[in-house]
Protein backbone atom coordinates (compact mmCIF):
# COMPACT_ATOMS: atom_id res chain seq x y z
CA UNK A 1 0.00 0.00 0.00
CA UNK A 2 1.36 3.40 -0.95
CA UNK A 3 1.70 6.27 1.55
CA UNK A 4 -1.19 8.10 -0.10
CA UNK A 5 -3.41 5.03 0.24
CA UNK A 6 -2.40 4.62 3.89
CA UNK A 7 -3.28 8.24 4.61
CA UNK A 8 -6.64 7.86 2.88
CA UNK A 9 -7.38 4.72 4.92
CA UNK A 10 -6.40 6.53 8.13
CA UNK A 11 -8.78 9.36 7.31
CA UNK A 12 -11.60 6.91 6.67
CA UNK A 13 -10.89 5.21 10.01
CA UNK A 14 -10.63 8.46 11.96
CA UNK A 15 -13.45 8.68 14.51
CA UNK A 16 -16.26 11.00 13.57
CA UNK A 17 -16.63 14.17 15.63
CA UNK A 18 -19.22 13.68 18.35
CA UNK A 19 -22.40 15.76 18.11
CA UNK A 20 -21.44 17.66 21.27
CA UNK A 21 -17.96 18.43 19.95
CA UNK A 22 -19.42 19.52 16.62
CA UNK A 23 -21.89 21.82 18.39
CA UNK A 24 -19.04 23.39 20.33
CA UNK A 25 -16.99 23.92 17.17
CA UNK A 26 -19.92 25.55 15.36
CA UNK A 27 -20.69 27.81 18.34
CA UNK A 28 -17.07 28.98 18.63
CA UNK A 29 -17.04 29.74 14.90
CA UNK A 30 -20.40 31.52 15.01
CA UNK A 31 -19.78 33.83 17.99
CA UNK A 32 -17.42 36.31 16.25
CA UNK A 33 -19.67 36.32 13.18
CA UNK A 34 -22.72 37.09 15.32
CA UNK A 35 -20.78 39.87 17.05
CA UNK A 36 -20.06 41.34 13.60
CA UNK A 37 -23.33 40.74 11.75
CA UNK A 38 -25.89 40.19 14.51
CA UNK A 39 -28.94 38.05 13.83
CA UNK A 40 -28.54 38.77 10.11
CA UNK A 41 -25.63 36.33 9.89
CA UNK A 42 -26.61 33.33 7.76
CA UNK A 43 -26.03 29.70 8.56
CA UNK A 44 -24.35 29.45 5.15
CA UNK A 45 -21.76 32.04 6.25
CA UNK A 46 -21.20 30.20 9.54
CA UNK A 47 -20.82 26.89 7.71
CA UNK A 48 -18.23 28.36 5.32
CA UNK A 49 -16.24 29.79 8.21
CA UNK A 50 -16.35 26.42 9.98
CA UNK A 51 -15.36 24.53 6.84
CA UNK A 52 -18.47 22.36 6.89
CA UNK A 53 -21.63 21.97 4.83
CA UNK A 54 -24.63 24.03 5.90
CA UNK A 55 -26.63 20.85 6.45
CA UNK A 56 -24.16 19.81 9.15
CA UNK A 57 -25.36 22.71 11.30
CA UNK A 58 -28.92 21.41 11.20
CA UNK A 59 -27.81 17.94 12.29
CA UNK A 60 -26.90 19.37 15.70
CA UNK A 61 -29.19 22.42 15.91
CA UNK A 62 -32.92 22.37 15.23
CA UNK A 63 -32.81 25.77 13.52
CA UNK A 64 -30.92 29.05 13.40
CA UNK A 65 -32.69 30.39 16.50
CA UNK A 66 -31.43 27.48 18.55
CA UNK A 67 -27.89 28.15 17.31
CA UNK A 68 -28.16 31.84 18.22
CA UNK A 69 -29.41 31.00 21.71
CA UNK A 70 -26.56 28.53 22.18
CA UNK A 71 -24.10 31.25 21.19
CA UNK A 72 -25.64 33.70 23.66
CA UNK A 73 -25.38 31.09 26.42
CA UNK A 74 -21.74 30.42 25.55
CA UNK A 75 -20.86 34.13 25.46
CA UNK A 76 -22.47 34.66 28.87
CA UNK A 77 -21.01 31.53 30.42
CA UNK A 78 -18.40 32.23 33.11
CA UNK A 79 -16.57 28.95 32.45
CA UNK A 80 -13.90 30.33 30.13
CA UNK A 81 -13.21 33.33 32.39
CA UNK A 82 -13.04 31.10 35.48
CA UNK A 83 -10.54 28.77 33.78
CA UNK A 84 -8.34 31.73 32.89
CA UNK A 85 -8.54 33.13 36.41
CA UNK A 86 -7.64 29.75 37.86
CA UNK A 87 -4.61 29.60 35.55
CA UNK A 88 -3.09 32.86 36.86
CA UNK A 89 0.18 32.18 38.69
CA UNK A 90 -0.59 32.67 42.38
CA UNK A 91 3.11 33.20 43.16
CA UNK A 92 3.10 36.56 41.37
CA UNK A 93 2.80 39.80 43.36
CA UNK A 94 -0.79 40.77 44.07
CA UNK A 95 -0.84 43.74 41.62
CA UNK A 96 0.28 41.46 38.79
CA UNK A 97 -2.34 38.85 39.65
CA UNK A 98 -5.12 41.42 39.75
CA UNK A 99 -3.97 43.07 36.50
CA UNK A 100 -4.20 39.69 34.75
CA UNK A 101 -7.60 39.11 36.33
CA UNK A 102 -8.79 42.53 35.14
CA UNK A 103 -7.67 41.78 31.57
CA UNK A 104 -9.45 38.43 31.66
CA UNK A 105 -12.70 39.84 32.99
CA UNK A 106 -12.69 42.87 30.70
CA UNK A 107 -12.31 40.52 27.72
CA UNK A 108 -15.18 38.43 29.10
CA UNK A 109 -17.40 41.49 29.46
CA UNK A 110 -16.46 42.75 26.00
CA UNK A 111 -17.44 39.41 24.50
CA UNK A 112 -20.77 39.46 26.35
CA UNK A 113 -21.48 43.01 25.26
CA UNK A 114 -20.65 42.33 21.63
CA UNK A 115 -23.00 39.37 21.40
CA UNK A 116 -25.88 40.88 23.37
CA UNK A 117 -25.57 44.20 21.58
CA UNK A 118 -25.53 42.62 18.15
CA UNK A 119 -28.66 40.62 18.94
CA UNK A 120 -30.52 43.53 20.50
CA UNK A 121 -30.33 42.45 24.15
CA UNK A 122 -29.76 45.98 25.38
CA UNK A 123 -29.51 47.37 28.86
CA UNK A 124 -27.47 44.49 30.22
CA UNK A 125 -30.46 42.19 30.39
CA UNK A 126 -29.66 38.57 30.98
CA UNK A 127 -31.68 36.40 28.56
CA UNK A 128 -32.40 33.37 30.67
CA UNK A 129 -29.88 31.02 32.18
CA UNK A 130 -26.32 30.19 31.26
CA UNK A 131 -25.79 26.45 30.99
CA UNK A 132 -28.17 25.97 33.87
CA UNK A 133 -26.58 28.77 35.91
CA UNK A 134 -28.31 32.10 36.35
CA UNK A 135 -26.59 35.45 36.65
CA UNK A 136 -26.16 35.19 40.43
CA UNK A 137 -24.48 31.79 40.21
CA UNK A 138 -22.24 32.96 37.35
CA UNK A 139 -21.19 36.02 39.36
CA UNK A 140 -20.56 33.86 42.42
CA UNK A 141 -18.24 31.56 40.46
CA UNK A 142 -16.16 34.47 39.17
CA UNK A 143 -15.99 36.03 42.63
CA UNK A 144 -14.85 32.71 44.07
CA UNK A 145 -12.02 32.54 41.53
CA UNK A 146 -11.01 36.11 42.43
CA UNK A 147 -11.13 35.21 46.11
CA UNK A 148 -8.66 32.38 45.48
CA UNK A 149 -6.31 34.87 43.80
CA UNK A 150 -6.43 37.07 46.90
CA UNK A 151 -5.95 34.32 49.48
CA UNK A 152 -2.11 34.38 49.46
CA UNK A 153 -2.27 38.03 50.64
CA UNK A 154 -5.11 37.52 53.10
CA UNK A 155 -3.10 38.80 56.07
CA UNK A 156 -2.34 42.10 54.32
CA UNK A 157 -5.93 42.83 53.28
CA UNK A 158 -8.09 45.29 55.21
CA UNK A 159 -11.19 43.17 54.62
CA UNK A 160 -11.82 39.45 54.03
CA UNK A 161 -10.76 38.19 50.56
CA UNK A 162 -14.40 37.47 49.67
CA UNK A 163 -15.35 41.12 50.23
CA UNK A 164 -12.29 42.47 48.41
CA UNK A 165 -13.11 40.16 45.47
CA UNK A 166 -16.68 41.50 45.36
CA UNK A 167 -15.44 45.10 45.42
CA UNK A 168 -12.93 44.46 42.65
CA UNK A 169 -15.52 42.67 40.53
CA UNK A 170 -17.93 45.55 41.00
CA UNK A 171 -15.30 48.11 40.03
CA UNK A 172 -14.62 46.30 36.77
CA UNK A 173 -18.30 46.34 35.86
CA UNK A 174 -18.96 49.92 36.86
CA UNK A 175 -15.76 51.69 35.80
CA UNK A 176 -16.95 55.18 34.77
CA UNK A 177 -16.09 56.58 31.36
CA UNK A 178 -15.08 60.20 30.78
CA UNK A 179 -15.03 61.96 27.43
CA UNK A 180 -11.73 63.77 27.92
CA UNK A 181 -9.71 61.02 29.60
CA UNK A 182 -8.74 57.59 28.25
CA UNK A 183 -10.00 54.51 30.06
CA UNK A 184 -7.74 53.17 32.76
CA UNK A 185 -5.57 50.26 31.72
CA UNK A 186 -5.97 47.10 33.81
CA UNK A 187 -2.77 47.91 35.69
CA UNK A 188 -3.81 51.53 36.32
CA UNK A 189 -7.19 50.33 37.57
CA UNK A 190 -5.48 47.91 39.94
CA UNK A 191 -3.17 50.65 41.24
CA UNK A 192 -6.14 52.87 42.09
CA UNK A 193 -8.00 49.93 43.63
CA UNK A 194 -5.10 48.88 45.84
CA UNK A 195 -3.69 52.29 46.75
CA UNK A 196 -6.55 54.74 46.38
CA UNK A 197 -6.94 57.93 44.39
CA UNK A 198 -4.20 59.90 46.12
CA UNK A 199 -0.74 59.57 44.59
CA UNK A 200 2.15 58.35 46.71
CA UNK A 201 3.92 61.73 46.33
CA UNK A 202 0.97 63.56 47.86
CA UNK A 203 0.84 61.43 50.98
Description of the structure:
By secondary structure, the protein is mainly α. Helix content is 65%, strand content 0%. The chain is elongated, with a radius of gyration of 22 Å.
Helix percent reads 55-70%
Unreliable residue stretches: 9-14, 122-132
Question: How large is the count of helical segments?
Answer: 10
Radius of gyration: 22 Å
The total strand number stands at 0
Strand content: under 5%
Outline the fold blueprint.
Elements: H1 3-13, H2 19-37, H3 43-50, H4 54-60, H5 64-76, H6 79-86, H7 94-118, H8 135-150, H9 161-174, H10 186-195
Helix pairs in contact: 2-3, 2-5, 2-7, 3-4, 5-7, 6-7, 6-8, 7-10, 8-9
Features of this protein?
single chain; 203 residues; mainly alpha; 65% helix; 0% strand
Q: Can I get a quick summary?
A:
The protein has 203 residues and is an all-alpha fold. It has helices at residues 3-13, 19-37, 43-50, 54-60, 64-76, 79-86, 94-118, 135-150, 161-174, 186-195.
Amino acid sequence: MTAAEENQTARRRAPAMSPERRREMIIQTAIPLIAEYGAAVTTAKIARAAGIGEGTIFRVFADKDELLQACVAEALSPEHAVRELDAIDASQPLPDRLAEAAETLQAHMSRMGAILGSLGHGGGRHPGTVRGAGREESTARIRAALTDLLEPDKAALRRPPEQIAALFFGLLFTQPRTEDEPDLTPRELVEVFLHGAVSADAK
